[in-house]
Design goal:
With about 400 residues, the chain is an alpha/beta fold. The chain is about 40% helix and about 15% strand. The protein has 17 helices and 13 strands.
Length: about 400
Amino acid sequence: MPATLRMSAISTFPTSKSVFLITHEFYPVRGGIATFTEEIARATAGLGYNVEVWAQSAPRGAEKSDWPFRLRRLPLKGSHDLLCQVRLARELIRHRRDLRHATVYLPEPGPMMTMMLLQFFHAFRPRRLVLTFHGSEILKFADSPLRRRLTRRLISHAARISTLSNYTQELLLSHFPEAAEKIFLTPGALRSDFAVVPPKPATTKNKIVVLTVGRLHPRKGQLLTLQALQLLAPDVRARLEYWIVGGQSKSNYEDRLRTAAEDSGVTVKFFGNIPDEELSDLYERADIFAMTSINHGHSIEGFGLVYLEAAAHGLPVVAHDVGGVSEAVIDGQTGLLVPPHRPAQLAAAFEKLIHDAPLRRRLGTAGRAWAARNCWKESAEALFRPSEIDE
């Protein structure tokens, strides 16, 4: 059905079936929150809801043609700065009559911060408010006395609250126990456009490829992975290539990483941000996936959708046992988990997988089944099931 006809058809739904999903992180932005937001919107529309996504501005031609929901680009860049908050507040005020009779879903902290201010005005409160917390924002909200009070008030207005992991759920309840009666798990799953690739046949390779996919940021641990690989014996390092996929962060982390790579004795390749179809090819050519996240200030790893994607490609995973990572990677079954800040133990985990091809295959095979266990439809039902949303 052409896009214009599809929009016209769903606009006739009753307001009780209308969901406005408001986000600062949406395609073509990469990352776990952007993926979660798009997939929840797609699954919710598949359940029969009239879904409209409000998202940050994007380059012309950045939209997909198969979205089963309407998309409205907002005049904001999607940061958490004051200008973005003011611009989003203007849009919410301008369309308050539509929002008042619908469900408003805030799947990440950017729009939550705006709603924290507007919640004091009854005219701007939606019929139903649904929230999802990912991890880091919980610590940021709890650290400020003012934001802590505003968050508690926002939670009191919410009909339903979700997290992606038990770890994040416990973290939220430890700081905001008033969420206890409203909280549900909405675990992540594979992207709906994920191409299932059959297991590759065992072959003898001259090089073992270790792959990391994630933004270049200290929390993602690329430098820690490189330092662990550097601890391996010279003849082992000579057999390795370390492939790093991800865009540069605002700090000088990429410069530090490139400098370390030059002196590491390991062949390191930087790919930057690449399209999904090219990324799939890199997954298929890799042997081990590594993302050794650490807690970095208020920034934590609440789950990690990328671990599921790597496992679905049959890659054994090496990761730090922090945050909600142990709910995405099962130690000894789909990968190897190592305590953070233990470089010798991390190097030993890599060495074990490098020398044990049968172990790599066993973990990879188990990972394929593990990654497919969840589906977005179940998460969307937990958020918007009719008994809670419909009158």
